[in-house]
């Protein structure tokens, strides 16, 4: 039985994959849990899928889910969630900016919380000043419009109990709002500090301005959903068990 699934969306990350797998395998082996690593290739145009196949041949704990065409980070994340078999599910980036050594920290809180999301408290160590400023502004706007208190909604390094994800419905761009969507459904979400490292290879697949405009439109949808979500508790169901007698 798989205890832990690590889901990693991948899009043109051939240079990062080998050092990532080497780091990740060392951390996961140290946990002493039965695990799988689900790489989701989001229509990469480079050798990413080929490299992951090589990992699988050497270690059957590695899985490859390959999308027919590039569908975006939310789609790749959703495909990974649906493929995951573990009791706990971690999702992280493939670009080496997330540090696998933070995985035990995230998992340690799942005894009391349903989901744990990372907070890049020292983001200045891994990003340009423009990205830091745009992220800070975006977080404030998101929290103001969605009545949230998440300090780093752009961090997709997260851990979940798998039952949280079973009925989670995502739309394009909604991977940013998974903590908010879970809170709307009554799940307990904790934010903890994680490391943030400089990108070693290639460049970000998402520009600052186009990401901001799209994210703002998505935020308005989440605000609408949050205002209209059904919130109630049944106080009494007299006779509801008669059908089972």
Structural features, described:
The protein is globular, with a radius of gyration of 19 Å. With 245 residues, the protein is an alpha/beta fold. About 2% of the residues have low confidence. Strand 1, helix 1 and strand 2 form a beta-alpha-beta unit. It has 7 helices and 7 strands; from the N terminus they run βαβαβαβαβαβαβα. 38% of the residues lie in helices and 15% in strands. The longest helix has 21 residues.
Q: N- to C-terminal separation?
A: 36 Å
Q: How many DSSP-defined strands?
A: 7
**CATH topology descriptor:** Spore Coat Polysaccharide Biosynthesis Protein SpsA, Chain A
Largest sheet: 7 strands, mixed
Kindly provide the radius of gyration, computed on alpha-carbon positions and rounded to a whole number of angstroms. 19 Å
What share of the residues lie within helices? 25-40%
The low-pLDDT segments are 206-210
**CATH superfamily caption:** Spore Coat Polysaccharide Biosynthesis Protein SpsA, Chain A
Structural class: alpha/beta
Number of domains: 1
**Alpha plus pi helix count:** 7
| Top CATH class | Alpha Beta
Instruction: Describe the strand arrangement of the main beta sheet, using strand numbers.
Output: 3-2-1-4-6-5-7
User: From the coordinates shown, what is the CATH architecture?
Assistant: Alpha-Beta Complex
**H/E series, N to C?**
EHEHEHEHEHEHEH
Gross morphology: globular
Mean pLDDT: 84
Percent of residues in β-strands: 15-25%
For the structure shown, list the relevant keywords:
7 strands, single chain, 7 helices, Spore Coat Polysaccharide Biosynthesis Protein SpsA, Chain A, 15% strand, 245 residues, alpha/beta
